[in-house]
Automatic annotation (TrEMBL):
Domain of life: Eukaryota
Pfam families assigned: DLH (PF01738)
Molecular-function GO term, any one: hydrolase activity
InterPro entries: AB_hydrolase_fold, Dienelactn_hydro
Name the record gives this protein: Dienelactone hydrolase domain-containing protein
Length: 248
């Protein structure tokens, strides 16, 4: 039996999904927790995109928890202050000002990297039965995650899907197994550089582009009523589950 078969996720719910996990506190952060705390020996900390803990992201957490028999934690790093769609689609001086102020804050990644490190430390203390830890970031969360995947990595393996602020300099510092699933919205040249660094003989990394998918297809911007997005959302989470199943 292949790893992919071992870690096949449950069927994706296209509409009306009701999250199966619970909300609790981890290191002072409201955190969504999927999976069985009493039996899990591996866990993944997922960092959402700038739109926060959407149903599409929480379903992804539930899918990984079920597919891996793991805990999946989604900490509310932005503490309820998320990007709003009107800022991006309805041009106005007010929306532009709000968007620029928000983006200026969240794109200063350092403080969020420090907060995530605190969350992971707190999670390791809270869930003592977990011996292997993974990190997964969506869009903005991918950058926060990869910056904790270097010489002082807090994870045993990590990954990014439709990553934000992708930079090959980050890839050069990665010291743990790492997977990148890119959309057609990332710079192909940087994705290619990532692939050259992480893949190849003796390297455990995986870098793959989903060429028909927009930036955000596995997170808040996933349109699961679209047949192709639904298919590739499912394929993406299966691929992530298989990778963590092998590396955690």
């Amino acid at each position: 039996m292949t790893c992919e078969a071992c870690n096949t996720i449950p069927p994706v719910v296209a509409a009306g999904y009701e999250p199966k996990g619970k909300w609790d506190e981890v290191a002072g952060f409201k955190t969504y927790i999927a999976g069985d705390e009493s039996t899990a020996t591996k866990a993944i900390v997922t960092v959402y995109d700038i739109f926060g803990p959407s149903n599409q992201t929480l379903q992804g957490a539930d899918l990984l928890a079920a597919g891996l028999g793991a805990l999946v934690l989604v900490p509310d790093l932005l503490k309820g202050e998320y990007a709003q769609y009107p800022w991006f689609v309805n041009a106005s001086p007010e929306n532009t000002a709000l968007k620029n102020a928000f983006m200026g804050k969240v794109m200063a990644f350092g403080p969020y990297v420090e907060l995530l490190a605190l969350v992971v430390k707190g999670a390791k203390a809270k869930f003592a039965g977990v011996t292997r830890w993974g990190g997964l970031g969506l869009c903005w969360g991918g950058k926060v995650t990869v910056l904790l995947s270097g010489p002082s990595a807090v994870y045993d393996a990590s990954g990014q899907v439709h990553p934000g602020a992708l930079a090959s300099a980050d890839a050069e510092k990665i010291t743990i197994p790492h997977i990148v699933l890119a959309s057609n919205g990332e710079d192909p040249a940087v994705v290619k550089e990532y692939k050259a660094i992480l893949e190849g003989e003796g390297n455990p990394g995986v870098v793959e582009t989903y060429p028909t998918m927009h930036h955000g297809w596995m997170g808040t911007r996933a349109n699961l009523s679209d047949e192709m997005n639904l298919k590739e959302y499912e394929r993406g989470y299966n691929q992530v589950a298989a990778y963590f199943g092998k590396r955690l």
